[in-house]
Model the fold of this input.
Amino acid sequence: MTSTQPLPFSSAEKLHYLSSNLRALLVWPVVLGALATALWSGAFWIMENEKRAISQRAFANASAQARAYAEQLDRIIGQIDYIMLSLKYHWQKSAGDVLLEEQVKQGLVPAAAGLSITIVDRRGMPVTSTLALGRNEASIRERDYFKSHRAKDQGLLFSKPIDGMRTKRPVLILSRRLDDAQGAFDGLIVVAIEPAYLTSIADYTGLGKGDFMGARRADGVFLAARMIGVEPTAGPVLMEDPVLPAPAGLEKMAGSRFVDGRTRYIGWHHARNYPMVGLVGLAEQNLMAAYEDRQHELQLIALAGSVLLLLVAGTGMGYSALRVLRREYAREVETAYRLATESAREGFYMLRPLYDRQRQIVDLLIEDCNERGAFYRGLPRAELLGKRLSATAPLLFQSHMLPACRVAMEKGFYEDEVHVPSHESRQPQWLQRRLERSGMGLAVTLRDITDAKLQQEAMHRLANADPVTMLPNRHWLMSHLPATLEQARGAGTLVAVLFVDLDDFKNVNDTLGHAAGDELLRAAALRFKALVRPGDSIARLGGDEFTIVLASAHSEEDVLHVAGRLIAALCDPFTIGGGTRHTVQASVGISLFPRDGNDGPTLLKHADIAMYAAKTGGKGNYCLYRRSLSDILLQRVTRQAELRHALEADQFELYYQPRVDVATGEMTSMEALVRWRHPQRGLIPPDDFISLAEENGLIVPLGEQVIAKACAQLALWRDAGLPVVPLSVNVSARQIDRASVSACLGGCMARHGIDPSQIEVEITESATVAQEGTAGAELAAIRALGVKLYVDDFGTGYSSLSQLKRLDMDGLKVDQSFTAQIANGPEDLAFFTAILAMAHAIGMRIVAEGVETAEQLHLLQQLQCDEAQGYYVSPPVPAEELAVLLTRRFLFPRT
Ligand code: C2E
Ligand code: MG
Ligand code: MG
Done:
């Protein structure tokens, strides 16, 4: 099945096959699912890594920034503290004689925006300040830091951001205690720093929106912060004050801890010398912006990969499903094929050739076979599969199998029938092999043709045997002869073909019946068989013809001797048909190889010609073939063909010879005598063709033509008003034999309205005698029509008057040889006289034929012969001339 052909499965069948092959299908989603997982894991790993790197970078950044800021704070606070300490020193030294306003003017203390220094007295009232003091300055004595310092010197004290007493804005307060000379509390140096001042000193490079930088007290209390993107000063960014352990730290803080809800990476660093912490917060959002792009990109890649994998999985599953279905289909086909082959009457083999280095097939591997195929080999199928052919049939392999396989592989096909020697009766003896190349292998079909072969052999035997004598027949002879001749040709020896024909065998068949005829043939065959030597053969060609082939003849004499013995073998009469003794003779024609022919048909033909010659030369003879015999035969064959043509071309016509009353000369009858008007040779007399026509049977249609023409002519004369006389027609023994005369006569007479008394039939004496058996009935039938019967040429045969009487003949036509002799003397006259006396005694009329002279007529008148016919009266004449004679009626020449 090609890939484009649809599979002949229903949906349910497909579902069934696919569900039972789930593993093959699921392998795709499983493998590709794993790949997708790996892809996504990879993507996540990369993302996580990047995220980690970002946070690490963020932490590093935050840490560095925090440290720098802490250092900055340390420095600034250090500077402020330095100023405070130097002011304290001057204050105490000068017992309070310090004027900050002066100091500012002289640049001893900074007058930076956001930074103010004020000295308050022990009551908390401002004494001097970098800011101009008003009239109603309020006391700070209620402030916590004041109270703390008053109670005890606290060193440098940082306060929480508080609303400045004077600035009214949130400020950070740094304070130191002033002591008088006695060391009693004498006031404070208060530095108020606006938170923005603390954040203004930081370096914001590298920070983005939402990032912040802030300062805290070491205990976590918020001091100042600045967030990028919002007001320069900002309140606390964190919801509550975290404890930031020293000396530094990093932490990712959830958005919930920030006032703006943003998650941040926090780095902090404690100032080295002061309880202050620099704090840097990097908004995760900023950090993750690039990361998110990258994450997006990676997700897209992973998604695209997943879609691709999904597609591949889908395609793969589709492909696998198709493969599964195809495989199932192939399995179904194979199962069906196996079922078919197993139930088939043929044996099947699939062979794979094994080659040597020269690419020559040296053996074949049995890839598959069905049970029947294995049975033909006589081995179980399981024992054959995978075996080499040579191992399964060592004897037949080289001689039978290998050559056939080589031819089949080369030409694509090989077929033959092989005889398989088998000891087991169940096993076939004959196999028909068909080998067909199929791809790289050979498909072999074996069919048991034993029955057909045995039948064929039986048919062959039947076809080659004659069922009557069980001798070989003509078919066998013709197929056997070539080998015999070939052998003789090689050995340079002689082969004789003897054509034996039983003479007058037909008489046996006719008189005693076919069963007796067959019996005689069998008996004759037995006698012939007894004469031939081993190596010679004898066959019956059909009818009464036998052929004997002498393959071991040494010389011509030897052959003639055998022919003589064959003829002699029949001399003793055969006892057949329940005790009848019968004698037959044989005519033998002989042809010799190589002298008379080189092949079977020629030798047989020549032996046949020689046999014919033998028969013509007198029966019971043999004759060797000569070339001249062939020529004679050729002539005969030509004449026969001409005769046949003449019949068709209506070349025959009738002459009529009158018969007269001897006493009065009145025309009593006339005889129709046939002539052949040959287009080249002119008018041919009947003696030249009647015997030939009798031999080949053409006399029957010719005889019918004569009867028809005679009747038609008689009717014409009658209708012309002529005084017609009876007309006699000559009929051959062969016509009587065929029993065709009475029917033909009856038909023609009826057609032309002719009275039977007007027709006579002449039949020769010899024929009359021979016909006593079967033909008696036909003669009786003719007589029954009312037609008279005459014996023609009486005196030439051996009939007796009693025989003629039995046949109920009406008259005798004495042969002209007797008429010719009557004038010779009293002896010949006496013979004629005796015939006349006897014939008259049994009531038969006598016609003298061939009356040529007045003397003969005169003598016949004296003898009181009834009728005369002859040239003296009239030769046979054409119809027109006879019409004249009819009118004349009295035909004796007027002397
Ligand atoms: P046949 O029946 O004995 O006929 C008489 C033959 O003697 C005729 O020869 C005739 O011409 C010849 N003949 C008559 N008068 C004389 C005579 O005075 N002297 C001599 N020497 N001969 C005389 P034809 O016509 O040549 O016939 C020869 C034979 O051919 C016939 O002998 C007959 O046996 C046969 N024949 C002729 N026509 C037919 C026919 O239609 N059917 C058959 N079956 N045989 C025929
Ligand atoms: Mg005649
Ligand atoms: Mg005659």
About this structure: The mean pLDDT is 87. The first helix runs from residue 11 to 19. The pocket of C2E (ligand 1) is lined by residues 657, 673-674, 685-687, 690, 703, 706, 730-732, 762, 792-793, 816, 849-852, 870-871, 876 (CB under 6 Å). DSSP finds 28 helices and 32 strands in the chain.
